[in-house]
Amino acid sequence: MTTTGFAQRIVGLIGFMLAPDGRVWFTEFGAGKVGVLDPMTRRIREYAVPGRPNIPAVAVAPDGTVWFTSIQGSLYGLTPSSGRLRRIVLPAAGDYGIAVSHDGRLWVGRNGGRTMYAVQAGSGRVSTRRLPAGSAPWWPVVDSRGYVWVALAGALVGGVAQLDP
Fold this sequence. Notes:
By secondary structure, the chain is mainly β. 0% of the residues lie in helices and 51% in strands. It contains no helices and 15 strands. The protein has strands at residues 13-18, 24-28, 33-38, 43-48, 58-60, 66-70, 74-79, 84-89, 95-100, 105-110, 115-120, 126-130, 136-142, 148-153, 159-163. The strands form 4 sheets. A 4-stranded antiparallel β-sheet has the order 1-2-3-4, with no helix packed on it. A hairpin with a 5-residue loop joins strand 1 and strand 2 (24-28).
């Protein structure tokens, strides 16, 4: 394996994803930033988020909006071309992991809260799905059929849950 360094240091890298356009989006936990790496040019661009929230997870929607969560209880949507940042306040803090379903809904896991949020990106409407007691849903993914899968961490429950949207 060969490792290659970049001239720019990335602080607190915790979440990342490969976007359909080949760029890599990442979060800088503790620095209040999201960034994007273009592997062809090796250039990195960072976007600072007001209030420097702790940002663990990122996902890119089909329309190109970059969505990310903060453990302080907010969901953010970034339009990279303009730098416009939209904030949706979630019902509680502790949000880890985000996935975008085929219908454009944003699925957010609430660590320690046995809760998954389904957020309509356009309206910001949030609905709640309760999971087994003691579960801590982390890092949801959406399969090719549109089902949401989420890891259930926690002292009382461990495993994987499948949600039918």
